[in-house]
Amino acid sequence: MEEVYKNLNIFLVEVIGFPNHCSLDCSYCDWEKQSFSPLTELELVRVRRHLQAALIFIRRHYPNTQVIEYSGGEPYVHPKVVELVLEIFKDYWVRVNTNGLHIDETALEALKAHGRVYLALSLDGHTLEANSYRVRSQKQLDRIIEGLKNALEAKIPVALLCTIHDRNIDGFVYFVDWLEQNWLSEIKQGRLMMAAHRMSSYGRPHPFPSPAQKQRMGEAMAGSSSPVILPIREHYEAMWDDDSPCTIYRWAASMHFLGNSLATAGRFTSFRCGMRGVAPIGEFALDQEMEWDSFSRAASLSVQMDFSFYRCRCFVDWRAFDLIFSGVIPMERAKKWFLPLQDQRVQQWVRDYQKSDS
Ligand code: SF4
């Protein structure tokens, strides 16, 4: 057997792309979605087998991983798969990306039972206008906000995913005020946080904010003393700066399951940066251990390559973590900002990463 490649610096492994169906149809979403089909018992058995293989794979190649991010499509169109992810990745922080429409009692019970889980819940503002690229009615928006409220009441940490576009940028400061008015205590405990992100495009036209709007938001953020903004003010300073360096590709790994692959062949594609699918490493099958060796080789070669070649310019919410890991945002401040960063194991990882990087 080939020597196993281990990347000790990996903090996050994204397990994404399943299901490829979503209960919303955001007009700025570039993901190729499929129509819904329920999973058969046999497919669920395969999902379990592939997730267990993914766990072994991650332990072998990325032994220091702290967070498993699970996203689709919308994970909760197959709640049983979310339950399996929570069961199998019980020793990690699990982040479940969701549109917030399905946070019911059963979902909350499973999240609470895990104990080291947080929701990354998409919300572009508190008004229908701000969410008009995502939701179809006030009723739908109310349901998402109810899901947020219920998650916080159940003491489940929530990271709000706010995509900044032309219809919500001018109201962003009012959104921040609204969060403070409703959940100041949760914000101060690090149970509710938000690192807003820029809209990205895979080449399709998108409703980008105008330069004047970006300038106004930049000025508003620079003058903000909100506990939502202040702990990560450097994140907002970097938001419209195209030259601000991003090093997420050094500490994140990706397993993108395309189509129904998690429930069928268990094949995944890995990218040096899975956030935007940049720098493909190759496609591998979890069922074929011999392919794990070729993954090892490809992955170790990929860390040696010059990433500047890709000239990527996106700005995702994880940039706030990038700024924390690189020491731009001090850990003492970051700990108060988001509860998982108070975990001793996570703090040790950050110390080790900073030592390896110095
Ligand atoms: S800029 Fe975007 S694509 Fe490039 S490394 Fe950062 S997150 Fe990945």
From TrEMBL:
**Keywords for the protein's UniProt record, in alphabetical order:** Iron, Iron-sulfur, Metal-binding, S-adenosyl-L-methionine
* Superkingdom, natural source: Bacteria
Chain segments annotated as transmembrane: none
Q: Name one GO biological process term.
A: heme biosynthetic process
Q: What GO molecular functions are on record for this protein?
A: catalytic activity; iron-sulfur cluster binding; metal ion binding
All copies of the Radical SAM core domain together span 4-230
Check the record and name the PROSITE patterns matching this protein: RADICAL_SAM
Q: Could you tell me which SMART domains the record lists for this protein?
A: Elp3
One Pfam family this chain carries? Radical_SAM
Q: What is this protein called?
A: MoaA/NifB/PqqE/SkfB family radical SAM enzyme
